[in-house]
Protein: Isocitrate dehydrogenase
Organism: Thalassotalea euphylliae
Amino acid sequence: MAKQTITVIPGDGIGPDIIDATIKVLDKAGCDFEYEYADAGLVALEKHGELVPEETLELIKKNKITLKGPLTTPVGEGFTSINVTLRKQFQLYANMRPVISFKGTKARYENIDIITVRENTQGMYSGLGQNVSDCGETAEAMSQITREGAERIVEFAYETARKEGRKKVTAVHKANILKSTSGLFLKVAREVGERYPDIESAEMIVDNCCMQLVMNPEQFDVIVTTNLFGDILSDLCAGLVGGLGMAPGANIGDDCAIFEAVHGSAPDIAGKNLANPTSVILAAIQMLEYLEMGDKAQAIRNAITEVIESGDRTTRDLGGSHGTTDFTDAVLERL
């Protein structure tokens, strides 16, 4: 059997350090991957004059599986978000962000296990109809939801729930106000839910959902929602388990997937061996599950769980005093 080749985008800032740590962990766990490296972000802009060079797109397309570190899109200079570009280019319609409590973090909750499934290509982030009037006094943008897009993402959420043995899917919306777009999403979500009688279906207005996540997060299992709401809710969920350093993300399409750290590139600590690599390692675990290498995924998860729970060589954000390499060594030893 041919080796699985992974496209690796180290990214900007702390990206190369935490990606390097993750590759070591994958190798130690015996995953036996081939890696092909590609540039994107500020690194690519300096080297190639563009944020996402053509050869990077070719590699993503060829290998179908990509592991990526945090990327920087220059703010307010007319650059389109790199992540939005990649999602559109490869039709990565599903964004999947699981959060699980780890003992030993400084999180407020101890038994969180929630997956946020977010539509990745439509809604307010589709970039449609964005314009500012000539006088600069009025700005507008358009949100578009299609029945096909809504059905695809809700089905993805229910299929994920079924595959992972989860009990409940909550559709989050604002159909009471956004009667057209959110209304269509909710209507479709109800229809899809009826096709999955083995899974409990719930629905919740987004503002109430935010409050419920803070007050009683244990009630949630799988959340499915549109792009803007999902972006906000998934970060809120990360906050329940100790922050973005503990939260991975997957962008999944029909035949292509990109797994990533969801936090920023933290240029202030780049190259200082301070960053917590957990987010990218958890993204690699998502990647292994996607590739049906569940035993390897579980081995890595167990190793990380032990390190964080024991406090052995943990990074500053986890209450320790160690850096990226020490933390990674602690994980490697347990593998």
